[in-house]
């Protein structure tokens, strides 16, 4: 059972017990009348709101209507508390007895989401809570219940501040005005919502608004009647009618909420919109990453060309320059000193062999011809053979793969092995390249010092970009003392 | 008395070939330097008649070194050299106080003699 459902079950149990308490209070009351009718209504409204509210809460946890209905159910029990013969419980009941009406206004004007969205909604709901909450409390401080019509046998008010009947009446009038204005705005909002809704929405809204609108109208009538000072019996009848209608209301709410897709659609739409925002943000990040990576690839291209020029200039070109001078000298000495000339020619041949080897190595660095001619396995074998650190090629694909994939995998291994030889202090390294589920998995691990920082040099970053350009992923694991493992996954169809 | 020469180049292989070529052509090699600062210090110390100066060195630009050598009390003749073409270096050769430029591929005794006598 989820934690929400456990809480809801506990609330349901509490509502049931409060109902029983209310029943006891009403049936033993000295002043409540008619007792049976009052009890039936309070229990009907309280339990129906609480239980349907909890059910709606469970079914639509994202929607506020369920919690509001539950709150209205609990608020009804204030009516029961006001039946108590204990002066303190009676006082609490008196203060809170009109609260359910405010919650109902809240429920109706915000149906089906239960969320306040417009100023008119906030005004109607705010006025309702003001009249039934804080104003009710202040009123109770200055009111002697025994002076109220139909309450001659009520307990004494334990917090009464006597001698302010005028103030009490003024507050009462203020409550009536606030409540009436709130209800009037509420009826206006219901009418406007109903008019704006589509035919499908009306099928759902009509029962709720019809029941709610009628209840409001009766409530408004009750407020006005109360102010006009009509006999207590008339007030009781009006009140009973209003409560009877209110008791039906939760079923209309529940029916509307469950049958409608409106609440659902609203939740889905809000979830979609949140998801959309998140996707847009993710996309933006991706675009920026892509832009940075593209920039780095172009930069790397230029850097590579500069490196090629510098390597050629510092390496083979210098050797060839020296060779030219040696050969020129050999020719000058050819007649006068043939032995010295022969010696110079030998030297020139050595120089030429060195220049050739250097050029071969250099060309391999630009593009290894063995890779395009004989494939990845042969090229990896060559890398392992030339590595100063012993390398074991544990796995290499025998079949040919797309050239960009072979090339990226080759350079991941080549650069990683260069790093192993230069920095790791490793005694052995293992290369594993396997094709699995349409992905070429490349792994180079060593038993060296570890602690390599992929952000520090341009080499690893360049590899990451190269792999990313093929929609692959690249990772370096290099805990200090644990060796280094470079991993690349390249989609290869 | 043979002219003394300081060879300035960051490639030891080239310095060795140049030394052999210069000696075969009747010059006396006073010393070698692998970078600009060492070259300027060696000039003050050795006072060579001629400096064979590579344009591209790890620390200083050959043209800058030529200008600084010009300010010495006994300013040596400077011949610039490079594995690049004259065209690659542009106006800088003409504007420099050096006697002239010989591409490394053309470097030999007669070419040097033509520039510095």
Largest Cβ-defined interface: A-B, 15 and 16 residues
Strand content of chain B: 15-25%
The biggest sheet of chain B, with number of strands, parallel, antiparallel or mixed sense and barrel status, is: 5 strands, parallel
Total number of helical segments of chain B? 6
> Based on the structure given, which CATH architecture of the largest domain in chain A is correct?
Up-down Bundle
End-to-end separation of chain B? 13 Å
Outline the low-pLDDT stretches of chain A.
none
Can you summarize the main beta sheet of chain A?
5 strands, mixed
- The figure for the number of domains of chain B is 1
Q: Your description of this structure?
A:
- The complex is a heterodimer of chains A (493) and B (117).
- Chain A has helices at 3-27, 35-59, 65-81, 87-96, 99-110, 119-132, 134-141, 165-196, 199-228, 232-259, 262-333, 338-366, 369-374, 376-386, 403-424, 458-468; strands spanning 391-395, 429-436, 439-446, 473-477, 485-491.
- By secondary structure, chain A is an alpha+beta fold.
- Chain A folds into 3 domains: 3-260, Rhopdopsin 7-helix transmembrane proteins; 276-360, Single alpha-helices involved in coiled-coils or other helix-helix interfaces (Up-down Bundle); 369-491, Heat Shock Protein 90.
- In chain A, β4 (473-477) and β5 (485-491) form a beta hairpin.
- Chain A contains 16 helices and 5 strands.
- The longest helix of chain A is centred in the middle third of the chain and has 72 residues, at 262-333.
- Chain B is an alpha/beta fold and 117 residues long.
- Chain B has a single domain (4-104), classed as Rossmann fold.
- Helix content of chain B is 42%, strand content 22%.
- Chain B has 6 helices and 5 strands, in the order βαβαβαβααβα.
- Chain B has helices at residues 12-24, 36-46, 62-70, 86-89, 92-95, 109-116, and strands spanning 4-8, 28-33, 50-54, 77-82, 100-103.
- A 5-stranded parallel sheet of chain B has the order 2-1-3-4-5, sandwiched between helices.
- In chain B, α1 (12-24) links the parallel β1 and β2 (28-33).
- In chain B, α2 (36-46) runs parallel beside α3 (62-70).
- Chain B is globular.
- In chain B, 38% of the residues are buried.
- The interface between A and B is medium-sized, with 15 and 16 residues.
């Amino acid at each position: 059972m989820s934690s929400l459902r456990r809480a809801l079950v506990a609330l349901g149990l509490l509502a049931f017990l409060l109902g029983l308490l209310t029943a006891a209070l009403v049936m033993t009351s000295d002043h409540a009348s008619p007792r049976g009718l009052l009890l039936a209504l309070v229990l009907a409204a309280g339990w129906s709101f609480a239980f349907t509210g909890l059910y709606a809460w469970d079914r639509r946890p994202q929607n506020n209507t369920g919690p509001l209905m539950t709150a209205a159910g609990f608020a009804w029990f204030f009516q029961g508390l006001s039946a108590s013969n204990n002066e303190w419980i009676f006082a609490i009941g008196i203060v809170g007895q009109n609260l359910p009406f405010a919650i109902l206004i809240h429920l109706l004007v915000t149906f089906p989401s239960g969320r306040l969205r417009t100023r008119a909604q906030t005004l109607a709901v705010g006025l309702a809570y003001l009249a039934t909450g804080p104003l009710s409390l202040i009123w109770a401080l200055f009111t002697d219940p025994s002076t109220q019509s139909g309450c001659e046998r009520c307990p004494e008010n334990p917090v009464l501040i006597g001698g302010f009947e005028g103030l009490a009446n003024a507050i009462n009038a203020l409550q009536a005005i606030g409540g009436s204005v709130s209800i009037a705005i509420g009826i206006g909002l219901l009418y406007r919502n109903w008019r704006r809704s589509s035919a499908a929405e009306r099928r759902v809204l009509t029962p709720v608004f019809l029941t709610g609108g009628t209840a409001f109208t009766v409530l408004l009538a009750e407020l006005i009647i109360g102010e006009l000072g009509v006999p207590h019996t008339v007030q009781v009848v009006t009140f009973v009618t209003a409560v009877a209608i209110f008791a039906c209301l939760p079923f209309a709410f529940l029916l509307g909420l469950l049958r409608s897709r409106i609440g659902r659609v609203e939740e889905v739409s809000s979830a979609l919109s949140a998801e959309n925002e998140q996707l847009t943000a993710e996309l933006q990040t991706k675009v920026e990453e892509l832009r940075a990576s593209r920039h780095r690839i172009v930069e790397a291209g230029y850097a590579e060309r500069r490196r090629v020029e510098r390597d050629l200039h510092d390496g083979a070109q210098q050797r060839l320059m020296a060779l030219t001078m040696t050969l020129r000298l050999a020719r000058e000495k050819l007649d006068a000193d043939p032995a010295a000339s022969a010696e110079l020619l030998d030297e020139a041949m050595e120089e030429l062999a060195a220049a050739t080897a250097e050029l071969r190595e250099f060309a391999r660095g630009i593009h290894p011809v063995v890779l395009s001619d004989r494939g990845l396995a042969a090229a990896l074998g060559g890398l392992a053979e030339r590595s100063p650190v012993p390398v074991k090629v544990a796995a290499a694909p025998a079949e040919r793969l797309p050239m960009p994939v072979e090339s990226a995998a080759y350079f991941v291994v080549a650069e990683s092995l260069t790093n192993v030889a230069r920095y790791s202090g490793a005694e052995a390294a293992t290369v594993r390249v396997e094709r699995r589920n349409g992905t070429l998995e490349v792994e180079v691990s060593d038993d060296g010092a570890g602690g390599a920082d992929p952000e520090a040099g341009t080499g690893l970053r360049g590899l990451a970009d190269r792999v990313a350009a093929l929609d692959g992923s690249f990772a370096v694991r290099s805990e200090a003392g644990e060796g280094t493992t470079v991993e690349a996954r390249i989609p290869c169809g | 008395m043979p002219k003394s020469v300081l060879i300035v180049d960051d490639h030891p292989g080239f310095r060795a070939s140049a030394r052999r070529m210069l000696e075969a052509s009747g010059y006396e090699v006073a010393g070698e330097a692998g970078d600009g600062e060492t070259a300027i210090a060696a000039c003050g110390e050795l006072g060579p008649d001629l400096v064979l100066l590579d344009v591209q060195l790890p620390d200083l630009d050959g043209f800058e070194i030529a200008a600084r050598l010009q300010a010495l009390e006994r300013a040596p003749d400077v011949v610039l050299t490079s594995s690049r073409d004259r065209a690659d270096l542009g106006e800088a050769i003409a504007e420099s106080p050096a006697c002239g430029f010989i591409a490394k591929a053309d470097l030999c005794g007669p070419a040097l003699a033509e520039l510095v006598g």
